[in-house]
Amino acid sequence: MTDNQTFDYQKKSKQLDDIIASLQNPDGDIDSSIKNYEKGKLIVKEIEDYLNKAENKIKKLKSLK
């Protein structure tokens, strides 16, 4: 994700919820489950990176007081 792209936390969170629901489905096939698991791991990483950047911005703003 570049700086000029907007991160949509709600959209990523919804995608992750959908992946989790599909992984909990006992009738799902293994190949789809593996792909969804891998996609979910990538989304988790994106969310973590986003939240870490937000936390750093807040810390920086607090230090300006």
Structure description:
It is a single chain. The chain has helices at residues 9-23, 30-63. The protein is an all-alpha fold and 65 residues long. The protein has a domain at 10-23 and 40-65. The chain is rod-shaped, with a radius of gyration of 16 Å. The chain starts with 8 loop residues before the first helix and ends with a helix.
In short:
The protein is mostly helical and 65 residues long.
Helix and strand arrangement:
Layout: H1 9-23, H2 30-63
Helix pairs in contact: 1-2
- Total helical elements: 2
Largest sheet: none
Describe the global form.
Answer: rod-shaped
Radius of gyration: 16 Å
Fraction of residues in helix: over 70%
**Mean pLDDT over all positions:** 92
Give the low-pLDDT segments: none
The secondary structure category is: mainly alpha
Q: How do the helices and strands follow one another from N- to C-terminus?
A: HH
- How much of the residues is beta strand, in percent? under 5%
**Termini separation (Å)?**
30 Å
Q: Count every beta strand, where a strand is a DSSP E run of 2 or more residues.
A: 0
Descriptive terms for the model:
single chain; 65 residues; mainly alpha; 2 helices; 75% helix
